[in-house]
UniProtKB/TrEMBL annotation:
Annotated region described as Disordered, given as residue ranges: 81-102
Xref: Pfam families: YebG
Superkingdom of origin: Bacteria
Record field: transmembrane: none
Record's protein name: YebG family protein
Lineage, opening ranks: Bacteria, Pseudomonadati, Pseudomonadota, Gammaproteobacteria, Cellvibrionales
Listed Acidic residues bias regions: 81-92
Gene source species: Microbulbifer agarilyticus
């Protein structure tokens, strides 16, 4: 029997096969939580669910958001188009063909 080391994120239970990826994911979730708290404190009428979704979306796109804040606002929309294409390609790759006559 083989032993496989995995790292589990306490915040959401996500599992990773290396410490670096686990720590990066944890930092992203911490940023998302802080953005969520900022939204909830400063924007009236936003539901908790909506503010969490916004916080997570901004945290996942933090590199592109930083570029936009440094004078390249077009990066936000360009990154969104690339992200949509990658998600579509990934969805196609994750489809397992059905086995016939097994």
């Amino acid at each position: 029997m083989a032993v496989v080391a995995v790292w589990k994120c306490d915040r959401d239970g996500a599992m990773f096969d290396n410490k670096k990826d686990a720590e990066e994911h944890d930092k992203m979730l911490e940023l998302a939580a802080n953005i969520t708290a900022l939204i909830e404190r400063n924007v009236e009428g936003v539901s908790e669910e909506a503010s969490e979704e916004i916080g997570l979306m901004l945290a996942k796109r933090r590199e592109v958001l930083a570029k936009a804040c440094k004078g390249k606002p077009e990066e936000l929309l360009a990154a969104e188009e690339v992200s949509e294409q990658q998600e579509a390609e990934t969805a196609e790759e994750n489809v397992t063909p059905l086995a016939v006559n097994q």
